[in-house]
Amino acid sequence: xxxxxxxxxxxxxxxxxxxxxxxxxxxxxxxxxxxxxxxxxxxxxxxxxxxxxxxxxxxxxxxxxxxxxxxxxxxxxxxxxxxxxxxxxxxxxxxxxxxxxxxxxxxxxxxxxxxxxxxxxxxxxxxxxxxxxxxxxxxxxxxxxxxxxxxxxxxxxxxxxxxxxxxxxxxxxxxxxxxxxxxxxxxxxxxxxxxxxxxxxxxxxxxxxxxxxxxxxxxxxxxxxxxxxxxxxxxxxxxxxxxxxxxxxxxxxxxxxxxxxxxxxxxxxxxxxxxxxxxxxxxxxxxxxxxxxxxxxxxxxxxxxxxxxxxxxxxxxxxxxxxxxxxxxxxxxxxxxxxxxxxxxxxxxxxxxxxxxxxxxxxxxxxxxxxxxxxxxxxxxxxxxxxxxxxxxxxxxxxxxxx
Amino acid sequence: xxxxxxxxxxxxxxxxxxxxxxxxxxxxxxxxxxxxxxxxxxxxxxxxxxxxxxxxxxxxxxxxxxxxxxxxxxxxxxxxxxxxxxxxxxxxxxxxxxxxxxxxxxxxxxxxxxxxxxxxxxxxxxxxxxxxxxxxxxxxxxx
Lengths: 403, 143
Prior knowledge:
The complex is a heterodimer.
Chain A: H1 6-12, H2 21-27, H3 35-44, E1 50-54, H4 61-72, E2 76-82, H5 83-86, H6 94-112, H7 117-136, H8 147-158, H9 162-172, H10 176-194, E3 197-203, H11 210-219, H12 221-224, E4 230-234, H13 243-252, E5 255-258, H14 273-286, H15 294-302, H16 308-324, H17 332-349, H18 352-364, H19 371-378, E6 382-386, E7 390-394, H20 396-402
Parallel strand pairs in A: 1-4, 1-5, 2-3, 3-4
Antiparallel strand pairs in A: 6-7
Chain B: H1 6-16, E1 22-27, H2 31-40, E2 44-49, H3 56-60, E3 70-75, H4 83-90, H5 93-97, E4 101-106, H6 108-117, H7 119-123, E5 125-130, H8 135-142
Parallel strand pairs in B: 1-4, 1-5, 2-3, 3-4
């Protein structure tokens, strides 16, 4: 349903919501996305491909991953999950991720096929061994027999209970090869019985802090790529500036999938009509044209930085401002006020050192070495764009501040 | 540099957000005045004072027991710094499930800390209102 009034705009332009299901069908606007190309590779490759999925925060990664699931659901068994639903992002280790992968694959597979008694027996005895080892460490957790009950119980507690995490790691990490062996046995049998390959999609790993991200992907790239199914990991974008991480990408992963920001201005500062048109279609798929003036929509696009959630938030906020004023459509002044909020957000957190870096990026459109640049990229003060060759620019709302 | 009375827009947003998920920040040093503003505009204002009340999320998960016009007003967040920042940043998804607007009253210092140390939570916001400029006048005008 398209918004017919400004109060509808408030409902439909929700910056927190990634498009899925019916809303994906209704509101999604086709953009230049690497998903289509990689969908073919994931479908047809004989190898269990491992990809890293990269993009700015809020630029539509989750929506694209939902779309990928839809594209491949007939050809592959898709096991999608958000890591933050399962684990504590502030206290996460590679073995936790592997355990969750095992649990999610097992759960999805069990809904579709009955595993052989031989494999079920192996998994049950593996989980009993883990429980025994936990008891030896003095951890008297709830006793659940059988692999299903064991992983269900454990994964339910991994997110919230620090003790469970610590004990589980103590027990599982020295025997990681056993866990990987167990996962791979499930994958092999399930793929054979289903006559389909398995694709695990892990969203929200890009939300871990950079230090943790580096630890996971640099130190444990080998372990994270050890399950013999297809896997897509989201990864914090600034991590890819690290030479170490780039090595890992080449060594263990089959590549990275980059979801670029929509280009609104090219590197010479000229408007990119194609990008602007795409954003316009995003808005007008969700709202009646009469609800926003052309100039207001153009202004919202120019200040969106090509980041989808930023754009959605500007429209929603401008809609509320117009509605407060008793008007039925959004004018330029409403969008201007919404943009002023974004400016204030940046004014609050930028320091003089940041401003110098931002001035440099404005001039050179290039990147600067160091953590500060990565932090600014993380906060969307700096954005990466690419049309073959990558360049950087600062958020349009900041331009006025640094000038 | 706020030229338009943002409290009027805040009230309108709270009306639009009735029975919906919406995380809103309001910069103010006058939580009591904000509380009065909500009550006098027929919202069922549920005050969560973090200086007194323990866990914000534990309070919010009870939202289904509240009337449709309920608005959670959260004050005193700095009293739980820094732990609360990591905690809320991690569990921000919960705000999506709470079908009541949550209005967090913050000082300039508090909002800066939230932006820096809970960036993903901050991205979940619908809007940040600055009620501080000419605060008293605005609050009085709409109450």
